[in-house]
Design a protein that fits this description.
By secondary structure, the chain is mainly alpha-helical. The chain has six helices and four strands, in the order H-H-E-H-H-H-E-E-E-H. It starts with 6 loop residues before the first helix and ends in a 9-residue tail after the last helix. In the C-terminal section; belongs to the transposase 35 family.
C-alpha cells in the first residue's frame, strides 16, 4: 500500500519559515508584547502542523490495521536515514541541500510513531505484525524470480531484472518482497531474520 503524505501538513508549515526568520534576529531585553505575540503565533503554527501529522498517522495506521490480517514492515533505521550529509563548513559534502530536504521528509513522516501505532492497534484488533530486518535486500531482490542485484543506488527508481527481464518500480518491488518475507517468516522459513 502506497500512501502519500498530506499536502495540508506542508501548507501548515509554510508560515513557520517567515515567522522563524523574524524571530531569529535575537531577543532584546525587556521582551516586548509584539515579540511575545510572535512567539505565540509560531507556537500555534507548530502545534497545528503537529496535529495534522498526528491525524494523518492515526488515519493511516487505522486503515492499514482494518484492511489487513497480517502486516509486514521493514524495521527502518531512521537516525541513519536522517543523518546529515558528510562534510564540514569549509568543505561541504555533495548534495547537502537535497539531503537536508530528504532528512526533513523522513523525520516529518514519523516512521517510528507509525510503527508504534501499528503494533498496538494490531494487538487491539487481533492482527499480526511481522518486522523484517532492515538488512533484508527488499529493494534489490526481484519479486518475480528472486535474483538479487549487487548494488542499487538510491537515485535508481526503476530497474530491470537481468535474470528474468521483469521491470520493477523500486518501492513497489520492495513492498512485495517485504510482504512475501513476512509470509515466509510466519510459515517458518529459514534464512530470514525477524527484527526484535
Amino acid at each position: 500500500m502506497q500512501k502519500n503524505y498530506p499536502g495540508k501538513y506542508n501548507a501548515a508549515q509554510l508560515p513557520l519559515t517567515s515567522r522563524n526568520a523574524k524571530l531569529s534576529k535575537g531577543v532584546k531585553l525587556p521582551v516586548s508584547n509584539n515579540l511575545r505575540k510572535a512567539y505565540w503565533k509560531v507556537g500555534r503554527v507548530t502545534e497545528h502542523a503537529a496535529n495534522v501529522r498526528k491525524d494523518w498517522q492515526h488515519k493511516l495506521t487505522t486503515s492499514i490495521v482494518r484492511e489487513n490480517q497480517t502486516i509486514s514492515m521493514e524495521s527502518l533505521y531512521v537516525r541513519g536515514m536522517a543523518a546529515s550529509a558528510k562534510g564540514s563548513a569549509d568543505k561541504p559534502g555533495s548534495n547537502v541541500k537535497a539531503k537536508s530536504g530528504l532528512n526533513r521528509s523522513v523525520l516529518n513522516a514519523g516512521f517510528g510513531e507509525i510503527a508504534r501505532q501499528l503494533e498496538y492497534k494490531a494487538v487491539w484488533a487481533g492482527r499480526t505484525v511481522v518486522k523484517i530486518d532492515r538488512w533484508y535486500p527488499s529493494s534489490k531482490r526481484c519479486s518475480s524470480c528472486g535474483y538479487v542485484l549487487k548494488s542499487l543506488s538510491l537515485s535508481t527508481r526503476q530497474w530491470v531484472c537481468p535474470d528474468c527481464g521483469q521491470s520493477h518500480d523500486r518501492d513497489l518491488n520492495a513492498s512485495i518482497n517485504i510482504l512475501m518475507a513476512g509470509k515466509a517468516i510466519l510459515a517458518g522459513a529459514d534464512g530470514l531474520r525477524i527484527h526484535e
